[in-house]
Amino acid sequence: MKNQQQSSDVLKLDANMRIPQLGDQQFEWYSPMEQPFSLAGFGWLREEQLYRRLPVNPAWKLPEAVDNLSNCTAGGQIRFTTNAVSLSIKVKLASAANMYHMPATGQCGFDCYIGDPGEQYYYSTARYDAKQTEYESVMFTDMERADRSITLNFPLYQGVQEVWIGLDPSASISSPPAYDNSEKIILYGTSITQGGCATRPGMAYPNILSRRVNMEFLNLGFSGNGKGEPELAHVIAEIPDPACLVLDYEANCVSTELLQTTLPEFIRIYRNKHPYTPILVLSCITYAKERYSKSLTLEKEERKQFQRQTVEQLREKGDANIYFFDGSTLLGDNAHECTVDGVHPTDLGFLRMADGLTPFLKKILA
Asked: Where is the SGNH hydrolase-type esterase domain (predicted)?
């Protein structure tokens, strides 16, 4: 028993697994709400000054679960340019990490990318005690003094009440590179859209796409509660300057009948406000159990065909800006190796989703 206890104490055996000590580094602290920082992914930030994905008091009543999940900051990004040699963050979360199948780094952590649009490369992830609701973490240190474009991705499955950016006292700050235009790509869907269960925020498929398409992305995935309610269609239709709306909510439809009821109405409501905005209807990815369940396979095929037929019928009626994508192709060969629980993608699964969607999305936007 003693040897087993010793061999399992990884933190003592591997220094790379330990949370780094902050040391005595000095930082100047900044709010990303202030200029020249740029915040993306929060459609009502300017009016409400909250890290929240839907308005606090919308004109249409939100389902209680959706209202709650709106406080999760999936898709949020802090963007800026700096010549800092050291960068740290201070974070106050709404709650501590508590998911069994998703690392705290993805649920509650930030990660850091460096580089201009189209050339962003991962650098680091916040490292902290997952039992805590407040933490400080150094994202990089001892860098050369040179201007760099920084993107910090917000946590996927937790609320952020406060976040502060710490830079060495001699650092300069300026605006990030501009987007190609002011339009926004909106993704409405489920836990998969929200980012469950990426190991860190940058690996959710909407965030991967945001590194390939230089536009603002709004992640409106609501875990277990992307059910296509008309109230959500009305609220989402209020978002100005949409470049594209992606509907990825099949996975939360408890029945084919619910999808058949909600999808045409959701599209109708949105079309009344945005008659020419591209709409992409995305069917569900492959589940591991489909190999062993004929009924599940038939049910998902029925739903996929309904979505395809809905798009085809609308196109025949003259809507040239609505598209269908077969999500069952996204995970590719060995799809069963691409999830953490048979449903929710791992980083590999999300990367394959993004790889499949990128050329199609770019074609739509073009």
From this structure: 184-361
The pair of three-digit structure tokens given for residue 57, joined into one six-digit string: 């008091």
Say whether 322 sits in a helix, a strand or coil. strand
pLDDT 10s digits, 300-353: 999 999 999 999 999 999 999 999 999 999 999 999 999 999 999 999 999 999
- CA distance linking residue 205 with residue 353, whole number of Å: 6
- Name the strand (E) or helix (H) holding 10: helix 10-13
Instruction: Establish if 7 belongs to a structural domain.
Output: no
Question: What is the spatial distance between Cα 15 and Cα 6, in angstroms, rounded to a whole number?
Answer: 15
Q: What is the pTM of this model?
A: 0.94
> In this structure, is residue 9 part of a structural domain?
no
Which H or E run contains 116?
A: none
Q: In angstroms, rounded to a whole number, what is the distance separating the alpha carbons of residues 53 and 220?
A: 7
* Secondary structure of residue 302 in the 3-state scheme: helix
DSSP per residue over 221-285, as a string?
Answer: E-TTT----HHHHHHHHTSSSEEEEEEE-GGG-SSHHHHHHHHHHHHHHHHHH-SSS-EEEEPPP
| Segment holding 159, helix H or strand E | none
Structural tokens at position 122:
């991962």
User: Between helices 230-237 and 256-273, what is the axis angle to 10°?
Assistant: 30
Q: Which helix (H) or strand (E) holds 324?
A: strand 322-325
Residue after which a domain boundary falls, among 154, 174, 194: 174
In the chain, DSSP finds a helix count (H) and a strand count (E) of: 11, 15
Q: Name the residue among 219, 233, 339, 363 with its Cα closest to residue 288.
A: 339
Residue 5 lies in a domain: no
Is position 10 within any domain? no
Task: Kindly report, residue by residue over 110-156, the tens digit of the pLDDT.
Answer: 999 999 999 999 999 999 999 999 999 999 999 999 999 999 999 99
Distance CA 323, CA 357 (A): 12
| Residue finishing a domain among 105, 139, 174 | 174
